[in-house]
Amino acid sequence: MNDKTFAIKIDGVTKRFDQKVAVNNLSLTVNSGEIFGFLGPNGAGKTTLVKMMNGILTPNEGIISIEGINPFEKPAVAHRYMGTLTETTNMYEYMTGEENLYFYGSVFGMDKAVLKDRIEELLEAVDLLDDKDKKVGDYSTGMKKRLALARAIIHYPKLVILDEPTSGLDPENARKINSLIKEYVATNNATVFICTHQLRYAQDICDRYGFINKGHIICTGTLSELIEKNSFSNNIHLKAKLGCPNKLLDQYKVQEEIYQIPFTDEEEIAELIKSVVVDGGKVYEARLKRPTLEDVYFSLLNEEAS
């Protein structure tokens, strides 16, 4: 398949630092137009891989393709397709917010008239229009993060790489960042590659996931695919007082009057509740408990450790 089918194609990449293998024969594809969550513990190799994708580090082995372009052979061309937000915002603090965006837009060779309109559009989108003339050194953490995201997408990149985009933000600022990311993908047919430790956040925003541990990929897929691949089951959480002994329920008892029962068909829930009531029991609570991204992630990491 042509590399241009994928926003990112990584094939057999290894990166060593002396005797330490940071990334080990890693292969991964990210489809165009998706928000991809790249998840793993500290030291798993996430940052090393992102630095190779940006052309900052060169792999010892393997090939990386960004929108069909090798970032080591043609770094300037690859960077025109990319925008990156690191965990530290790295803005020029002695410059204003507007001056920062003008500088970075100029680096990408944007037309002055186009750049002027683009800066105003982005400052409004990240709710910084009224603060555009303030020095970035006087910005709060949330303001700096929002400005850094505006900088990352100022040149309309097809691929946006975000490292912990909502770390250190309050819920309101995190919501603004998420809204901007989703809107950018939808209106520009762009791809977003998110490195994060925040699993609930990743489940809310990402379409597909890749788990990395000790430099290699454990698993990739949508949440539904990850659940199916690894045979996770949906459960009914039942709180009930039984009217008579029930061998089926007894095997799923987790504590007094609490049961966790696997199921495949939601019709089973109604039948289960009915059977408890018919036998003289009382149902206090019955709800679905589907596996979360967090459940899958920690289960796979624990499996790796054992």
Automatic annotation (TrEMBL):
Domain ABC transporter: from-to ranges: 8-239
Keyword ATP-binding part of the UniProt annotation: yes
Gene3D superfamilies: P-loop containing nucleotide triphosphate hydrolases (3.40.50.300)
InterPro entries: AAA+_ATPase, ABC_transporter-like_ATP-bd, ABC_transporter_ATP-binding, P-loop_NTPase
Domain of life: Bacteria
MF-aspect GO terms: ATP binding; ATP hydrolysis activity
Keyword Magnesium: no
Keywords: ATP-binding, Nucleotide-binding, Transport
PROSITE patterns, A to Z: ABC_TRANSPORTER_2
Family: Belongs to the ABC transporter superfamily.
Matches recorded under PANTHER family: ABC TRANSPORTER ATP-BINDING PROTEIN, ABC TRANSPORTER ATP-BINDING PROTEIN NATA
Record protein name field: ABC-2 type transport system ATP-binding protein
